[in-house]
Amino acid sequence: MSLVDKIFHYDILQFMSPIIINPGSPKDKAAIPLATKLGNHIPNERRLEQIPSILREGIVFCEKNYSDIKLRSITATYDCLGMVFAARRTWIEDKYLDWILKEDNYRCLSNITELERGDLVVYRNKGRASHVGIVVNIIRPLTKEAKWEVEVLSKWGAGGEYIHKMERVVPYLGEPSEFWTDRKQYGKS
């Protein structure tokens, strides 16, 4: 098993766990009551904390390979969707991301110029939703030739929460592909 698998794919290490039928369902004792704005249950699972030495390895790995990112916190008890949609309390599989965005009335922004702090960046890997982060800072270009700089807070699997440039994530998390917001715009068409 690779170091990246040990650090970021904690689900691989959930060995000797009983097999649960309908994991994350309301009847699963490892799930918490969690629903979309439309009232539908969001499958989720509270996970145990990772071994401290593995968490430390994650910090060292990121400091060595991603020196431009900033660690906010590290725990394996929730993932990126749990950070964004469940107040850092649980894991939500990334296969539910598109559904949650729809159920919670998020709207996809047409381009980066509409982006504001608090909006979401959705990452995709081979077309599949694979990661989500919250925009924490935007540096708008002063000229047309300059590039937008977007900083994101996101949770890297079973690793840490990091503040990082939007494009700067471990490859398995995918690439930034869409911007979403739940900002209300009453009176606008």
Explain what the structure shows.
The structure is a single chain. With 189 residues, the protein is an alpha+beta fold. The protein has one domain (3-181). It has 4 helices and 7 strands; from the N terminus they run ααβααββββββ. It has a 7-stranded antiparallel beta sheet.
Going by helix content, strand content and strand pairing, the class is alpha+beta
Strand content: 15-25%
Write down the secondary-structure element order. Answer: HHEHHEEEEEE
Figure out the total of helices: 4
- The first-to-last residue Cα distance is 52 Å
Which regions have little confidence, pLDDT < 50, spanning 5+ residues? 12-16
Give the overall pLDDT as a whole number: 89
State the shape. Answer: flat
Number of extended strands = 7
The side-by-side strand order for the widest beta sheet comes to 1-6-5-4-3-7-2
Radius of gyration equals: 17 Å
Biggest β-sheet strands, sense, barrel: 7 strands, antiparallel
The helical percent reads 10-25%
Count of distinct structural domains: 1
Keywords:
4 helices; 24% strand; 189 residues; alpha+beta; 7 strands
Structure, briefly:
The protein is built from 4 helices and 7 strands. With 189 residues, it is an alpha+beta fold.
How is the secondary structure organized here?
Elements: H1 3-8, H2 52-65, E1 70-74, H3 80-85, H4 97-103, E2 107-108, E3 120-125, E4 128-139, E5 149-155, E6 160-165, E7 175-181
Antiparallel strand pairs: 1-6, 2-7, 3-4, 3-7, 4-5, 5-6
